[in-house]
From TrEMBL:
<dbReference type="GO" id="GO:0005886">
    <property type="term" value="C:plasma membrane"/>
</dbReference>
<feature type="transmembrane region" description="Helical">
    <location>
        <begin position="20"/>
        <end position="42"/>
    </location>
</feature>
<feature type="transmembrane region" description="Helical">
    <location>
        <begin position="236"/>
        <end position="259"/>
    </location>
</feature>
<keyword id="KW-1003">Cell membrane</keyword>
<dbReference type="Pfam" id="PF03706">
    <property type="entry name" value="LPG_synthase_TM"/>
</dbReference>
<protein>
    <submittedName>
        <fullName>Flippase-like domain-containing protein</fullName>
    </submittedName>
</protein>
<keyword id="KW-0472">Membrane</keyword>
<keyword id="KW-1133">Transmembrane helix</keyword>
<feature type="transmembrane region" description="Helical">
    <location>
        <begin position="48"/>
        <end position="70"/>
    </location>
</feature>
<keyword id="KW-0812">Transmembrane</keyword>
<feature type="transmembrane region" description="Helical">
    <location>
        <begin position="140"/>
        <end position="159"/>
    </location>
</feature>
<feature type="transmembrane region" description="Helical">
    <location>
        <begin position="209"/>
        <end position="230"/>
    </location>
</feature>
<feature type="transmembrane region" description="Helical">
    <location>
        <begin position="165"/>
        <end position="189"/>
    </location>
</feature>
<dbReference type="InterPro" id="IPR022791">
    <property type="entry name" value="L-PG_synthase/AglD"/>
</dbReference>
<feature type="transmembrane region" description="Helical">
    <location>
        <begin position="294"/>
        <end position="319"/>
    </location>
</feature>
């Protein structure tokens, strides 16, 4: 009887899974935007897109860079709290490189940052993994506060805006509360009664959240997130003005933040599809012509989400190479 060949390594089987998923989701979104552009008139949409010049694009990208830089500083602040040695450039390299994985489902691909930390410092997963949770919670809290403030100050209203802001803030508070998270993990273990080692590690991770409970750390983290996400909201406001849409800053920020949060709730990679649909729908409800809504949505998503992915694509190979090199140094100590 002939012997079966051994299966290929798992890495080879799944090497192209995430890139193909990204490409497929992007293709679907582009197809949807193209369909809307065709329905509203290619010429009108094309004219709106070409009204945005290089100077406009540079300003939008600069505001996105403000967001990325401030959130990178927040990651550095959290990294110092868990006991990582000083290394601002290292932390920024990890944070920006992780953007390549922003369009994985639930953005779980950004956990690659934790792998880099383990390689370069030898820090255990239980100690470093809460960084990912705190980063996600920090974004939720910042966007929830921006959405709530923008809704209160804007002249219009968004159906479901206040509940969405409240839900995002509640999730952020729960996710960063050490005792509450540990209690939830314990209750889940009692319900399922399986995988004691896994739940034990999850409890250990939950307890490490107490390191972030210092009011100064949380206040600084929220402030950095607020300024960063407000910069992108302001970019959306400028874009609408350049496209001839007369709207207030607060209305633009409410639409941008609501669409970003709503897209994230779909669980799709990078909120693809959901964020675009919500943004176009809200702009249309504000009386913005369809061709302008499609153009504004396409431009702001390119200069925020896809700009971040592009930065991640440039930094990722360097972060991977340096983490592998530093791993050997850590192992040889």
């Amino acid at each position: 009887m002939s012997r079966l060949a051994p299966p290929p390594p798992p890495g080879r089987l799944h090497r192209w899974r995430d890139p193909l998923l990204m490409a497929g989701m992007l293709a679907l979104v582009l197809a949807g935007l193209a369909g809307l552009a065709a329905a509203t008139g290619w010429q009108e949409t094309r004219a709106q897109l070409f009204s945005i010049g290089p100077g406009h694009l540079a300003a939008l990208l600069a505001l996105s860079l403000v967001n990325y830089a401030l959130r990178g500083l927040r990651w550095h602040l959290f990294a110092r709290r868990i006991g990582l040695p000083p290394g601002l450039l290292r932390d920024l390299r990890h944070y920006l490189g992780g953007f390549l994985m922003s369009v994985t489902p639930g953005r779980v691909g950004e956990l690659v940052r934790i792998r880099w930390i383990r390689r370069e410092t030898g820090m255990t997963l239980e100690r470093s993994a809460p960084l990912f949770l705190m980063d996600r919670a920090g974004d939720l809290a910042a966007m929830a506060l921006i959405l709530a403030g923008a809704l209160a100050l804007s002249s219009g209203s968004i159906a479901g805006g206040a509940p969405l802001a409240a839900l995002a803030l509640l999730v952020a508070l729960i996710a960063t509360h050490s005792q509450l998270m540990a209690g939830l993990v314990t209750r889940a273990y009692r319900v399922f009664g399986l995988w004691p080692r896994l739940f034990g590690r999850l409890r250990a991770m939950a307890r490490t959240l107490a390191q972030f409970s210092h009011s100064g750390v949380l206040a600084g983290a929220v402030a950095l997130g607020l300024i960063g996400w407000a910069a992108e909201g302001y970019a959306f406001h400028l874009l609408l003005l350049w496209l001839g849409v007369e709207t207030t800053l607060w209305t633009a920020m409410a639409i941008f933040t609501f669409a970003t949060l709503a897209g994230g709730l779909t669980g799709a990679p990078g909120g693809l599809g959901g964020a675009e649909a919500a943004m176009i729908a809200l702009l249309t409800l504000e009386g913005v012509p369809p061709e302008t809504s499609v153009a504004a949505t396409a431009v702001i998503r390119v200069t925020t989400l896809w700009f971040a992915v592009g930065i991640g694509a440039m930094v990722f190979p360097l972060a991977e190479k340096l983490s592998e090199r530093n791993r050997h140094a850590v192992e040889n100590r």
